[in-house]
Amino acid sequence: MQTETIDSIAVLETRGLTKSFRGFTAVDDVNLRVQEGHIHALIGPNGAGKTTVFNLLTKFLAPTRGEILYRGKPITSLKSNQIARQGLVRSFQISAVFAHMTALENVRVALQRRLGTSFHFWKSEKTLEPLNERALALLDEVGLAAYADTLTVEMPYGRKRALEVATTLALDPVMMLLDEPTQGMGAEDVDRIVELIKRVSKGRTVLMVEHNLSVVSRLCDRITVLARGAVLAEGDYPSVSSNPLVREAYMGSDAAETSDERASA
Amino acid sequence: MSDSQVVGAPGIAAKRERRAGQRRAILYIALIAVGLVAPFLAYPVFLMKILCFALFACAFNLLLGYAGLLSFGHAAFLASGGYVTGYLLASYPGLTPELGVLAGTLAATLLGCLFGVLSIRRQGIYFAMVTLALAQLMFFVFIQAPFTGGEDGLHGVPRGELFGLISLQSNLAMYYFVFAVFLLGFALIQRTVHSPFGQVLKAIRENEPRAVSLGYNVDAYKLLAFVLSAGLAGLAGATKTVVFQLASLTDAHWHMSGEVILMTLLGGVGTLLGPLAGASLVVSLQHLLAQSPLGNWVSVILGAIFVLCVMSFRSGIVGELATLYRKNFK
């Protein structure tokens, strides 16, 4: 799928990333390497620290120890919004949309920062209208053009997640961090999102947390398994799924089992 | 997605928006007309008091309704605008009132920068407490400082001549000055809400972490909203001082910070006209009750109204009217 020729360099790398909460180590010495152009999955049983890793990578939490490198440069000391500006954009586990804005406005808010007029309180919002065309194109790309003028709060759940992807794409990210993009979705929506991720990941790098192993097997080039905050295994889907340690870690964790069964059913 | 949907969807919205815009324009024109003839129908000083408090409430609403920040210290800005304007106009007889008002507004804006930098990182109740603490600090400054007249306040501030030309001694002339100031302040708020900045502010209010992940430095946006709100509150205070020719500790007291919350919530937080309605109601009630045998019960009655408002019509007068309108006429 991806051609691993010249560009097998790491876009994102962590060295000894650790986060402790009052003595409880949620993330323990994690060394992650996400290669350019890859769709990389972060999986693991509940409470393994996947979302915490995401929060550390985007500085929504400050790491206790360790270093984060993005395109070879340390970003450990940057703030969340600065990281986003460098093209490392995250999504959230619960759908993160601006509920009382229309779908178009949701995307446009992401586009408007580049205009450099976001502090201009004396200008009319009509000055944002030139962005509508691009916003509409992005909505079209995720199949939401018909929802352009719908208030987001009135949209079905699956569509909200697609809108999130469109908003993220508006920043033209180098790398997307997707936190459980298919969580809480029906099978039909899952297929649509999988197709969407496959499509929009062209030319980008994706790191995703995902519970649904069928989604992982269909999408991901490389998988890192976390358990109790530490890296348990890493590799492509066949090697990881046949790893006895991984199987053991997942035993009793019905989230993974059932989604796996659902996938094979 | 078919092309017709792509083209059709925004077309309908544009039309709907245009019609809503026309209705809004008619409403505003009608209100301006009422404002222009009002001093011939009611006592101008009373109307000026309403307008000053309405501007104060509008400024507060910009922060609470559109940035989602509850400040419990806005009295400090009202008072600092008032005191600075009062002091300057009383000490320098050559100074024209519009320059005095401008100076008061500037002072409140600067104080807003200081308060904002100190408080903006706090959230919710902590933000309210920090602003309250800072405002109390200012209250004691106003008692002790040599230029404020301490417990007595500043009296006999001259109204002077607008631009050095038009005497504001007559209440009618004064009224139109205040009306113009109010319109200016209101227009600025209206524009701020519907500006590129307003869009980001809305996004932050809707979902702050998401706004951060889109690269916005949310603290900077909140700070700007806070400073704008403080400056406009100062403008209201400065204008009020010129009208009543005095600046007193009443404006700096925490009661005043509470009163503006009451006005805003009663009128409808997050609606542009709500604070105007709320301020009109509260000032009118205070005025009417003070003359009636119930004079001593003003606070109790206002409190009861507030409780009623919070329990049964939460979106305030204008918010409820807007809902009613949407339900019945659309």
Quaternary structure:
heterodimer
Give the overall silhouette of chain A: globular
Helix content of chain B: over 70%
> Approximately how much beta-strand content do the residues of chain B carry?
under 5%
Termini separation of chain B comes to 29 Å
Question: Share of helix among residues of chain A?
Answer: 25-40%
Number of helices of chain A: 10
Please list the strands of the largest sheet of chain B in the order they lie side by side: 1-2
Low-confidence stretches of chain B: 1-9
Shape of chain B: globular
Major sheet details of chain A: 6 strands, mixed
- Chain pair forming the biggest interface: A-B, 49 and 35 residues
Overall strand count of chain A? 11
Order of helices and strands of chain B: HHHHHEEHHHHHHHH
Short description:
The complex is a heterodimer of chains A (265) and B (330). Chain A has 265 residues and is an alpha/beta fold.
Feature tags:
heterodimer, A: 265 residues, alpha/beta, 6-stranded mixed sheet, 5-stranded antiparallel sheet, 10 helices, 11 strands, disordered N terminus, disordered C terminus, B: 330 residues, mainly alpha, two-stranded antiparallel sheet, 13 helices
Give a topology summary.
The complex is a heterodimer of chains A (about 260) and B (about 325).
Chain A: E1 10-21, E2 24-30, E3 33-35, E4 39-43, H1 50-57, E5 65-70, E6 73-74, H2 80-85, E7 88-90, H3 103-112, H4 132-141, H5 157-170, E8 175-179, H6 187-200, E9 205-209, H7 213-219, E10 222-227, E11 230-235, H8 237-241, H9 244-250, H10 254-264
Parallel strand pairs in A: 4-9, 4-10, 7-8, 8-9
Antiparallel strand pairs in A: 1-2, 1-3, 1-5, 5-6, 10-11
Helix pairs in contact in A: 3-4, 3-5, 4-5, 5-6
Chain B: H1 3-41, H2 44-67, H3 75-91, H4 97-119, H5 124-144, E1 161-162, E2 166-167, H6 171-193, H7 196-206, H8 208-213, H9 218-244, H10 254-267, H11 274-291, H12 298-312, H13 316-329
Antiparallel strand pairs in B: 1-2
